[in-house]
Amino acid sequence: VTHGIPACIGGMTINSKQLDNESPISIFAVNKCYVTVQEGTFFDGSGFAALVREGYKVRSDVNITLEFRTTAVHGVLLGVSSAKVDAIGLEIVNGKVLFHVNNGAGRITATYEPRGTNSLCDGKWHKLQANKSKHRISMIIDGNLVQTDNPYIQSTSADTNNPIYVGGYPADVKQNCLTSKNSFHGCLRNLVLTKGQQAELFDFSRAFDLRGVFPHSCPGAEH
Hints:
Number of domains: 1
CATH architecture: Sandwich
Strand content: 35-45%
Pfam family, one: Laminin_G_1
Helix content: under 10%
Largest sheet: 13 strands, antiparallel
Order of helices and strands: EEEEEEEEEEEEEEEEE
Structural class: mainly beta
Radius of gyration: 19 Å
Domain Laminin G: 38-218
Protein name: LAMA1 protein
C-alpha cells in the first residue's frame, strides 16, 4: 500500500494508553475531521495537486469536466503546459471562469461571466465542462454555453508534455495558459478528462505531489 487512507481516525489507544491527537510530534497531509463532510477533495488555498508524472498530452482534442465549490473569487483550477507555448488552462479570475488554449499560434480564451447576482463563488457546487476540439474551444457552466472564435484555424494541436496541475502549481513551474498564481481554496470533485471514447476519472489521493490538498474530505460548510 503506497497511499494513505481517506478516513477519520480517533480514540486510538496503545497498551491501554490513549494517544494525544491534538499535539503530534510531526504531521503530514493530515487534516481535521469535519462534523459534516461531503464527497470531494479540499484545497486549502496554499498548494496544488500534481497528476500524471510522465506528462499529459492534450494534442487536438480534450474534454474536461469537474465540479467546484468555493467562496474565493480567484483561483487556479487546472493547467497543462509545455516548455514552449502550447498549453491549456482553467482558472477563476474576479469571479469569472476562463478557459485558455494555445495550440502554438496564440492564446485563445473563452470567458464565462455569471449574470447579475448569480455568483459562482457562493460556496455551492457548480458543474464545469471545458472542451477543446482542434482549434475550437467552448465551455459549459451550470448548463450555460460560452464559446469563442479562434483566428488561428490552421493550428489545432496543443503539444503538452507536462503534468496536470490542479488547484495551483509550483513557483518554479511555467504555465503558459494561466494568468493567476492564486491557489484554489475550496472543494473539487469528479475531475474527468476525456479524449475520444477514453474517459479518465482522476483520484486525487493518487497524485504524485499533493500540497495543501486533502483527498476525499470536503467540509460540509466553509470552516
